[in-house]
Design goal:
Blueprint lengths: L2 H11 L30 E19 L2 E21 L2 E14 L4 E3 L2 E11 L6 E12 L17 E11 L10 E11 L21 E12 L3 E14 L11 E11 L4 E10 L27 E10 L10 H5 L7 H4 L3 H47 L5 H22 L1
Antiparallel strand pairs: 1-2, 1-13, 2-3, 3-4, 3-5, 5-6, 6-7, 7-8, 8-9, 9-10, 10-11, 11-12, 12-13
Length: 415
Amino acid sequence: MNKFSLLFMVALLSSNLPGQNLYNPGGRSLLHLHSAWLLEKGSLTLQTNTSSYYNTVIVGSKNNGPVGTTVWQKNAVAGLNYAPGKHLEWGLTYNLYQDTQDVNRHISSSFLELKIKAANFGGLRNHFRLGLVANTVLPMGDSHNLAFEPYASGTMQFGLTGLVSYSSELLVPESGFNFHANVGFVQHSDAGENLTGAATDTFLVQAATRELLYGAAMVFPTNRLDLGLEVFGRGFASRPPVTAYGREDYLYLAPFINYRLNRKISFKVGMDIRLLKDEDRTNYTTTGIAPLHPDLPNYPGWRLRAGFKFYLTKPEPRKIQKNYVATTPVAKYADFAEESPETLQERLVRERRKIEEVEQELERIRYNQRKMAQTLKNLRLTLHGETGNNPSDTEKEAEKFTEEIDDITTQKDGG
């Protein structure tokens, strides 16, 4: 991790802009949840995600017949994810379109999300990976306290989520059965805020709102089609005031499929199904905010999600197929070409392990070199101070030895 990346992470972790986790994860992640895997170093992806919800409710009668209206909520986002190193990934997501139409009014809003992910921690032969995601969201519109959406006060917030992932495959984890778990929190800085701005609303946020986020998922992959199932939810450790939409806890089940058109493009579609009962804890009588229809809870009973992912710089990691090995130039090496995909993956894992061991050895050599160079420098200063003359032959020999160490290290780097 370079100095810029480290400073970038510290700045992000110390920021307090609005944050929502378990949505629009991007990279090598699922529909809602993050995986503890990262994109390959140098990979850049573009992903889109849309959601929609519709419901027809009765609002009155005319000519002895019921009169209905359609209530809907739509959302569209696009995001970029980039991995500058093997343990770091950045993400930028923009809410292109967010629109809510209830029985009383039409509301639109948007946001800009920035996140950083430190993950892929675990040994090469460890089927588990660990990670951490911090994210911030900068609200771009005037409306934030919206029905059908997670609570948002329009003030500064901070989100942090821990990640763990398991796969039966070591080299390309998506190619084997995989399981994921996310646990996180969101700390709002909304104390003292009035959420509605209505003249009749005298309710203020008494204490900063705190949310607990959690989720788990499993994925059953095939060559082109992956079948997945997510469960994710939220509970409040400190609940917002009665003027807030979305102040209820929620729990959703989300089956989804991911279809790979090729190694550059994939399509994902799923359905959020609410598991908790209909509930509306918002107070509409004395707060001055418009009520929803009596048949509508603050969170929809279902929501359709769909999106595309594009690998812009490097192709998506895929399991090595036997026919692929047979058609590559290495097929002329019979002992290599005849190996099964599993045996070949084991060999590649071993080779990657050797590379990591060489990198660790180089780091040790560089560290020892720096210590030796400092010792030689101190020796030169001592000799120079005692003689009062130019550097002696001993000093020149020390400089020559340092140059030889540099040459050895450079040769190993090149190898």
